[in-house]
Design a protein that fits this description.
alpha/beta; Alkaline Phosphatase, subunit A; 14 helices; 15% strand; binds calcium ion
Length: 512
Amino acid sequence: MRPFLSFYFAICIFHFGAIGTPPAESVSNPNVLFIAVDDMNDWVGCLDGHPQTQTPNIDRLAGRGMLFTNAHCPSPLCGPSRAAVMTGLRPSTTGIYGNQQWIRPNLPEVKTMPEHFKANGYYVAGAGKIFHHTAGSNPPDQWNQFRRMTYDDPWDRENSDNYPWTKVVPKPEGHPFSGLWMGHEGDWGAIPNLAEEDYSDAKTVGYCAEFLDTYKKDKPFFLACGLFHPHLPWYVPQTYFEQFPLDSIELPVLKENDLDDLPPEAMKMAKAFAAYYATIKDSGKYREAVRAYLANIAFADAQVGRLLDALDESGHAENTIIVFWSDHGWHLGEKQRWLKAALWERTTRVPFIIAAPGFTKPGSTSIRPVNLIDIYATLNELCGLPEKSLDSESLVPLLLDSGREWHPTLTTFKYGNHSIRSERFRYTRYYGGDEEVYDLQRDPNEWSNLAGTERGNQIAAELASFIPTSNADDLPSKGAFDFDPDFYSWTRKTSVEPDPLKPQSAASPVLQ
Ligand SMILES: [Ca+2]
């Protein structure tokens, strides 16, 4: 089946209607403050992922609404996760499995979240990284206004096809600041002579704060604030490193021979970024790297704090829904690997908070398995927008009753690899049939693969029905188009016909 056909079939299969009646005190035409962070795993205070993490602002945001403690990404990589969140359509529906596949030229009929809000009476603004951050991923006509993402490391943005608006400068003295070179983006440290307010994320928040302060139009707004931290490279002001004394840093708990019970396809995923971990460990800088990630989370948290303060000072807070999410998690040695791009808890679990005046109780928590792809339908219902046929399910019933029955959720990585997370278990089935089963209650680190055991088979059988029955072909990647960044237009170079039997996304994903 060709991509467009499979796409239309799939959206018919997975349509969930809006459920629940808004409570009487709910606000009409609410604004939306949509906050995305990048590559932030569950090392957030309110999720208890690391004992030393410092996220007072994300924690206070959780205190304003509902924290989902069992939330997962639709795909564990920037591009496909964000494409799924922003379209409400799964990778297996669209065929966007990697960072190299644009939405617009491949799926021109699909309406992204800002387009949908704009078409339905909202003023739509944003800044920073909302869609994938390379050129061609964020058509400006989706927005009424948008501040384009900039980079703290312009010296490393030499690929002008991806960053045409970035002027490349010579490397600063002392680079790489970590003393360890792992290629593009693999560095950490403080950028010499760069004040905190001059970091890109600080400017993104400054733009959004000014928007909140000055917004006076007679229509509701949808404001998207996309923070790039803690995405690589891990550059933040020195004060954030100083918050975490190096000698005191606690490292993730790892199990020797953790990979011994993995089937071949899972092993391939573990090995995908094993070299980064090996390099860091062998250099004696593991503790430094863990500190750098904590420092970057703390920096992102501080920016979230500035944004929340700006909202509270703007007078819009009582009529504004806040959604906070990270596009996927991150490995720091677990499964002997680094980075994202895998289907274990470390990478699929994400911070996810919704604070909706009139719907959420302050400080409430839901342990039900939910997915970031559900944001689209949830906001649709909360804002009273027309329903769309999506793979997205409104979480409003959970916002109103956190303990109500729910169902398992899906994360997909590359063609045909799916992982189902229920409240207690994880079942992963790879293209070709390799399987993993984990009992997260007994085995929170996913050290014991139960696949093939009687119990494992039973769990797999129960969860298998949540795996999509069809997988859209990989969409053509960037190489199939000429992109003109000045006019934001694409020309298809050739007719690319992917082989549906071949898992084309099996190539290593690029990090950018
Ligand atoms: Ca990311």
